[in-house]
Amino acid sequence: MPDVRLASPQGKWILLTTILGSSMAMLDSTVVNVALPRIGHDLDASLAALQWTVNAYMVTLAGLILLGGSLGDRYGRRKVFTLGVVWFAAASMLCGFAPNPAVLIAARALQGIGGALLTPGSLALIQASFHRDDRSRAVGLWSGFGGIGAAVGPFLGGWLVAGPGWRWVFLLNVPLALLCVPVALRHVPESADDRAHGRFDILGAALGALALAFLTYALIEARTGSPAVVVSAVAGVAAAVAFVYVERHRSEPMLPPDIFASRQFTAVNLVTLCVYAAFGGFFFLTALQLQVVAGYSPLAAGTALLPTTALMLLFSSRSGALADRTGPRLPLTVGPLLCAAAMLLMLRVGEDADYLTDVLPALLVMGAGMVTLVAPLTATVLASVDTARAGLASGINNAAARAAGLVAVAALPLLAGMGPEAYRSAPAFDAAFDRAMPICAGVLVLGSALAFTLVRRPAPGCVRPECRQHGCVTAPPLETGGRG
């Protein structure tokens, strides 16, 4: 039984290690968007290359995150977490020294592999190390500090881009890793799950990642109309079909199809796909809109986005408590509608937009909507399956959110009619942005309708989230389901 106490020196070192590791991935998910215009200008990259700068990371992370958690359970959580930190830092260094868009995109894909190894391991190490009486407080501190990291990410990214340069957005991960790894090896006890057995579903993970990669390529390059787009689309559909076949016929699949026998679990994941597709498109385009059209500096654009994540960090735990009393249907219906309203308010953000009257109201409404829906979303996911499968359910939901975001980043510029050089022209980008926001709002309204129609109150006595505070905008919090 885990016996490390939070007040002990070892407990503090373990907490520091897990916060540093998870902060690397959280920071990276929020700071890169702010750096995109400078990356594009410095590397002479097209809009498609900027889309891939975001999506190459998301493809490997979303496709492999379930496998990463399983590897930690089998071979040792500290070992896999440490490997993930080293891998992530090495890929970050490659990103920082990338001489052209192709190298940057490849390095971002490698970063996603490291993220898939370290992201599930952070919370799993806390669950496996701390005494039962201290675990809840340790998780609270971990999620709180992680939320702070996500909240300051855009500000930090803007400061780095405006000062030392965009390459330091990636190189910052190297000193964090140099601090994290020795502490982990010295102070974090190794742990594994004795019940973990059987073969890893490597084929399923590979097919899932390939399906996402091929379909993403087809969406990003669709405007070219080349034969490669058709081939990629067909290959993506074939990989997706093969993935479903493999998962249905494996004795121990990565994504067990029978988990979707729960109508509540299926419903909440459909809502997740809608809301995080809209969020992915919104934050990708808004960081560009503020700089390309409104004329904000990278620092000003990063700072402008702070209110949304700050509201999530401050009020997500209260939102979860309120949803416990009202049931999830109301917040999962109202939250997306608030976010949809925020995206329509963003239509006021154009050339020389005033922050207080044009930008801030939209971001405050956006933050209120995300506060309303994110905590109940996670709670409903956990409550919709058996306790023993809570960690798996959370992992599937987290991967679904990331996959929805990457598809949105690939598809939204196409649907909005953005050309390959749109981010170099303020009028062209502004016109496309004005077409994109109503699309995002419509997807959110669809998510709200699905929640109102399909989501029901969970049964009493179900698993509750341990991550009460959350500031990440790219995916819901990842729960391990461990309560022992």
TrEMBL record:
Coiled coil: none annotated. Residues 14-459 form the Major facilitator superfamily (MFS) profile domain. InterPro entries: EmrB-like, MFS, MFS_dom, MFS_trans_sf. It holds the Pfam family MFS_1. Signal peptide: none annotated. Keywords: Antibiotic resistance, Cell membrane, Membrane, Transmembrane, Transmembrane helix, Transport. SUPFAM superfamilies: MFS general substrate transporter (SSF103473). It is found in: Cell membrane. The keyword Metal-binding does not apply. It is a multi-pass membrane protein. The chain crosses the membrane at residues 12-36, 48-68, 80-99, 105-126, 138-162, 168-188, 200-220, 226-246, 267-290, 296-315, 327-347, 359-383, 395-416, 436-455. NCBIfam families: efflux_EmrB. This is MFS transporter. It comes from Streptomyces musisoli.
